[in-house]
Amino acid sequence: MRLDDLDPSENVRDLGQGSGGGGFGGGGNILLGLLPMLLGSRLGCGTIALIAIGVAIFMAIGGGGGLLTGGVAPTGSGGQQQVGANKPCDTPAELQACRVMTSTEQTWNQLFAAQGARYQPPVLNFYQRSVQSGCGNASSAAGPFYCPADRGVYLDTGFFQELAQRFGAAGDFAQNYVIAHEVGHHIQNITGTMEQVRAQQARMNRAQGNALSVRVELQADCYAGVWAARNKNRLEAGDIEEGMRAAEAIGDDTLQKQAQGTVVPESFTHGTSAQRMQWLRRGLETGDPAQCDTFQGAI
User: What is the pTM of this model?
Assistant: First the structure.
């Protein structure tokens, strides 16, 4: 995807290296924060993590903290980490992410303006090892996530290597999809979708709450597709295929088959591979966020 002509976003911070939690296979405090949501808690929007198959299922099969990535962290009372002297966008991976953020800002600014509204972008926070967000503490094992409390996207760019090596989703567009997906959660937050979901999940059992989380997750996939569709002139050969491979690799059914050999549909929180590909494709084909209503009808 051609983004070289874009200036890096100004809505970025580099929070530096936190203590503890190092590595994508080592778990982290966000696991304990996400567990209540996996069990149908009222604390958040369900497990809107990008790749997590669910802490309860994962722990049950003896994983102990491997396939943990972020999406939407539970709203908490954690304070902001102090910003040091680290300069954001100063590595190739960070620079790419900063340019993706610029592109999402331009796209959503246009879409909101067309509706007579003003878009307020999230802040992209780079970190290493661990981070203190407005939603509490998280380690890099959690992967990228969005925190509604401080409207921040949190990213340890080391995750991109994990995405390519463990999940077979290499390529710049696969990485861009990750970021655009998290921005999709931000759109859900500022438009009130998250609050509505929290209110509904408070009255649901675990299976019902999980099913609603799937719809939230698929909408974020669709929003990522909308962003890409609005930037078709920047797409290169193979980009869409990279995105589809990533969506396929992180479906709940695919991850559960790989981890335990069977699938448990009532535990799905993100959608099947087919569903994730379908809704990413919906956004790509229409370029219209109004076509991303995953809350009506079958998915």
Answer: 0.83
d(CA 47, CA 36): 9
Exposure pattern of 141-150 as b/e (b: 16+ CB <10 Å)? Answer: bbbbbbbbbb
Q: For residue 86, what pLDDT is reported?
A: 85
* CB-CB contact of 147 with 133 (8 Å): yes
H or E segment at 132? Answer: strand 130-133
75-106 residues labelled b (16+ CB within 10 A) or e (exposed): bbebeebeeeeeebbeeebbbbbbbbbbbbbb
Model pLDDT for residues 252-263, shown as the tens digit of each residue: 999 999 999 999
Report how far Cα 84 is from the mean position of its chain's Cα atoms: 25
**Is residue 40 scored above 90 in pLDDT?**
no
- 4 to 1, 21, 100, 119, 294: CA distances (angstroms): 9, 33, 10, 24, 33
CB 146 within 8 A of CB 153: yes
Provide the pairing of β-strand 152-155 with 145-147. Answer: antiparallel
pLDDT tens for 171-214 read: 999 999 999 999 999 999 999 999 999 999 999 999 999 999 99
Radius of gyration of the chain (CA): 17
